[in-house]
Design brief:
Helix content: 55-70%
Strand content: under 5%
Number of domains: 3
Structural class: mainly alpha
Number of strands: 2
Shape: elongated
Order of helices and strands: HHHHHHHHHHEEHHHHHHHHHHH
Distance between the termini: 9 Å
Radius of gyration: 26 Å
Strand order of the largest sheet: 1-2
Largest sheet: 2 strands, antiparallel
Length: 507
């Protein structure tokens, strides 16, 4: 590869890396620079020769990926939504250009690109925490931690950078990114970070061990995972009912008890020891704000009051409301739902439990980003079943998905009836069994490629992060997600079975 082309390709990849957390424009410019280097190398420098032809003859997964990409692009032809189809073509076309770059001009100095990924993620996590802290100091009603990209994409970038840094034993980068990412996860409550961070540390620690101790370490990690899942299941069990459920309130009215509903707040059941008929008159004794006043999240004040008093462990009756302290009244008026304020990961875990219990009681996961994914997945399966062979076409899933939600009588609010949030189901729904077969072939062949190399702990990490993301996100449906995937897979694609990490980084 000529030096000008190598420098242009390197500049393009670095622009993508540093632009990912902040700017769609920078990501677009970086992709264009890589594309120009492809054309320059393939058509001008080598005049049509294939500089990386040996790689394509040896490996079969690139062919499967190209076939899947061509079929996906072709499926835009039978999409019933041309506008969305064109938008998706413009996004996913970048994948085709970046795949061509692996063939015509493999990214030079992969070691430098991997370092840049780590430092870019560390910088972004740190600045997001600082920005959120400034908002908190200024008493912002709603903290916006990641205004330029989603916390999921930023966590994927951080996962790539930290995993590579640990395997390559870059201690300064690993510690810096690990601390910045942990602070980001704690402050923002990003569950992707909370799950991926320990997994990344385990991967890095495991890769540094000799072959024999790795088996013991892996076994211990699996046992720890089983214990964590078991603890989660125990934690999600219904809160016990109170020992006594009196029939009447201190004011002489009947309590409403619904022990079959498990919704809880602060370790206490919401739908027991409740007397709604006393609420309004009692609340007027302590506050001039109506209980019907909507709060910042759209809930009426009476819902906030119900949950707040539940968290106190007190009956939801007139006597309790009339005896609330001024501090408690003010907290309810501000929309607080728990007497023990929480932020970040603690608050997110409360939301996870509340969302699960709401889903369990009312079959309605609206607003819970975790539990409503089950509705998305069911709708995606129905959408695939309505066009099983060739799918609905690239960009043509919106209307079929909305029809699927209606067909399954989903209680999910229309504002939350999104796409599949699973790349595999999205592939099946938009390109049918043909596209899904090509997609699975690509994944299987790529897994074989990365796990049979002597240095596979380094190169396989990108594939692991990419695959995990596709299980809970439409990774290739957004510009940032697609470019994170390109970084993950591109690092894997640009080495041969004879390369060592140092050797491949010089290519």
């Amino acid at each position: 590869m000529s030096k000008p082309v190598a420098r242009l390709a390197q500049l393009g990849w670095l622009t993508i890396v540093w632009g990912l957390p902040w700017s769609h424009g920078a990501m677009t410019v970086g992709t264009m620079l890589v594309g120009v280097s492809v054309v320059w190398q393939a058509l001008i420098v080598t005049r049509g020769a294939r500089p990386n032809d040996a790689f394509w003859r040896r490996e079969k997964w690139p062919l499967a990926l190209v076939c899947w990409f061509v079929w996906t692009m072709a499926s835009a032809g039978w999409s019933l939504d041309p506008a969305r189809s064109w938008k998706m073509v413009s996004i996913e076309a970048a994948l085709g250009m970046l795949v061509l770059s692996w063939w015509a001009c493999p990214p030079p100095n992969l070691m430098g690109i991997r370092r840049a990924v780590g430092w870019s993620a560390a910088t972004a996590c740190l600045l997001c925490v600082i920005q959120g802290g400034i908002q908190w100091y200024n008493d912002a009603s709603e903290l916006e931690w990641t205004p330029y990209t989603s916390h999921i994409r930023l966590s994927l970038l951080a996962g790539l950078g930290l995993g590579w840094a640990m395997v390559e034993k870059r201690r300064l980068l690993a510690w810096t990114l690990g601390i910045a990412w942990a602070a980001f996860a704690w402050c923002t409550g990003a569950l992707t970070a909370a799950v991926l961070l320990p997994l990344t540390f385990l991967w890095g620690m495991w890769s540094s061990l000799p072959v024999r101790p790795r088996k013991w370490f892996a076994g211990s990690a699996v046992m720890g995972l089983v214990a964590a899942v078991g603890s989660l299941l125990i934690w999600l069990q219904p809160v016990p009912l109170p020992n006594e459920l009196p029939e009447r309130t201190p004011w002489g009215n009947l309590y409403m008890h619904q022990p079959e509903l498990t919704l809880s707040e602060g370790g206490h059941r919401v739908f027991v020891l409740s007397c709604p008929m006393e609420w309004d008159s009692a609340w007027k004794q302590v506050s001039d704000v109506s209980l019907d006043t909507p709060q910042r999240r759209g809930h009426a004040l009476r819902q906030c009051m119900l949950r707040y008093i539940t968290s106190l462990g007190l009956p939801k009756d007139g006597a309790t409301i009339a005896s609330l302290s001024p501090e408690d009244v003010r907290a309810i008026e501000e929309g607080n739902t728990n007497c023990h304020p929480a932020q970040g990961l603690t608050q997110r875990m409360r939301s996870v439990r509340f969302g699960y219990e709401t889903w369990r009681d009312f079959k309605n996961p609206t607003g819970s980003s975790i539990w409503q994914r089950w509705e998305h997945w069911q709708a995606a399966v129905l959408t695939w079943q309505s066009a099983p062979w060739i799918g609905h076409g690239l960009g043509g899933l919106f209307e079929p998905m909305q029809q699927a939600y209606v067909q399954m009588n989903s209680k999910l609010h229309p504002d939350f009836r999104h796409g599949a949030h699973n790349q595999h189901l999205t592939v099946a729904s938009q390109s049918g069994l043909v596209g899904l077969t090509l997609w699975v072939a690509f994944l299987v062949l790529m897994a074989r490629h990365v796990f049979r190399n002597n240095q596979w702990p380094l190169h396989a990490w990108g594939f692991v992060v990419f695959f995990l993301s596709t299980c809970y996100e439409d990774t290739l449906e957004t510009q940032a997600g697609l470019l994170v995937a390109a970084l993950a897979l591109g690092s894997t694609a640009s080495f041969s079975t004879k390369d060592s990490p140092a050797g491949s980084d010089q290519g």
